[in-house]
Write a structure and sequence with these properties.
This protein is mainly alpha-helical. The chain has 16 helices and no strands. The longest helix is centred in the C-terminal third of the chain and has 36 residues. It is globular, with a radius of gyration of 22 Å.
């Protein structure tokens, strides 16, 4: 029997196919806002410093019971880093380097520039008691490079953006540029984990700066969780997540735990720190595994859109609002805190509506060279 001749086909190049365009993980948007609110709780009531000037006394006196719980809110940053690892792996898969750079720059810069200008302008007002940075340093802050260049920061939270930028650079050079694949991402996670451990042991400042031993496990854990999202039976992905959690909780405890001290603002137990880190990993894992797929409410997407501008402005402008409401109007501490959060969320909505919604697509199209295309509705 003679087989029928096969249709002539052009052989395909052996490339790793990009995954199908992911559906919106709205639970992840909600988790972003939860992490931002954790950080806000820490900044408003979980530490001393300039916020004590806004309250008039230490937050430990304003919130005699809750201030100890608020002190754990700083771990919202680590939760953010896990989320970032997940999202960057998801959004970077199948992109060119130009597209990846355009997407990240367009996502970060418009709201950041607006926040820098806004906070600088408010702190320059005569009625505001907080010190503004110099004009030169304010201009340098627009580059996002004020941290390594040693300039004063306009936004207190911008140190976390410096960590994000370094993660983006590592991921872009090691994964996006050669082309994302499961094997390459696993090698990237393994190499970064080992290199970060060696950097920590070597105590070399340049290696610490590039490899970020303290924060690397959270980014790497998020990347591993995206691999789990693609294939929940991937043993290597689960191994990446497990090792990252083990290392991450170690660094969190080493940084935040101290022996009980009656003169200290608060006491974070090592168990409490481990539990918060674990809950952050578990929350992203639940989303990766689809356990929260039913949380598909549109308001979560709105909440996610507010998170970044809220995160940028809530700390320093929050001091101004707290002082006006609590010392100026005499409102109770709890009411002041809630109204301050509400005011910052409203401001975040204005920044999202009048800055991000038009500037982000415009900047993305400009940087990617797609000036004739219609802007995409959703932010990556």
């Amino acid at each position: 029997m003679i087989d029928a001749p096969a249709a002539e086909v052009t052989p395909a190049r052996p490339t790793t196919p990009a995954p199908p365009r992911p559906t919106r993980l709205r639970a992840l948007d909600g988790l972003r806002l939860v992490a931002a609110l954790m950080v806000a709780a820490y900044h408003y009531g979980g530490r001393d410093g300039e916020v004590a000037d806004a309250w008039g006394t230490s937050p430990s006196l304003q919130f005699p019971t809750l201030h100890g719980w608020f002190a754990y809110g700083c771990l919202g940053v680590q939760v953010f880093f896990v989320i970032s690892g997940f999202v960057i792996c998801m959004s970077g898969w199948g992109r060119t380097l130009t597209s990846f750079f355009a997407s990240r720059a367009a996502r970060l810069l418009p709201a950041y520039w607006a926040a820098v200008v806004l906070v600088t302008a408010v702190f320059a007002l005569p009625v505001v008691a907080y010190r503004a940075v110099s004009p030169s340093d304010a201009l340098l802050n627009l580059t996002m490079l004020q941290q390594p260049l040693g300039a004063d920061r306009v936004l207190g939270v911008c140190w976390t953006l410096w960590a994000e930028i370094r993660f983006y650079a590592l991921f872009a050079l090691c994964v996006v540029l050669p082309g994302a694949s499961r094997r390459r991402i696993i090698l990237f996670c393994a190499a970064w984990t080992l290199a970060a451990a060696l950097a920590q042991g070597a105590g070399e400042p340049l290696l610490d700066l590039v490899l970020m031993p303290e924060y690397a496990p959270f980014f790497i854990g998020g990347v591993g969780l995206y691999l789990v999202h693609r294939d929940r039976r991937d043993a290597y992905a689960w191994g990446i997540v497990g090792v990252s959690w083990l290392i991450g909780q170690h660094y969190a405890v080493a940084r935040l735990w101290h022996a009980p001290d009656v003169d200290a603002f608060s006491y974070r137990s090592s168990l409490g720190i481990v539990l918060v880190v674990t809950c952050g990993f578990l929350a992203v894992a639940a989303i990766a595994l689809g356990w929260l797929a039913r949380a598909d409410w549109r308001w979560l997407t709105v909440a996610g859109a507010l998170t970044y501008p809220f995160y940028l402005v809530h700390e320093h402008l929050g001091w101004v609002v707290i002082e006006a409401l609590h010392q100026g109007l005499g409102l109770p501490s709890s009411v002041t805190a809630l109204l301050t959060v509400a005011a910052m969320l409203l401001l975040a909505r204005l920044l999202n509506r009048y800055v991000e919604e038009w500037a982000t697509p415009l900047l993305r199209r400009t940087l990617s060279g797609r000036t004739s295309r219609r802007p995409r509705a959703a932010l990556n």
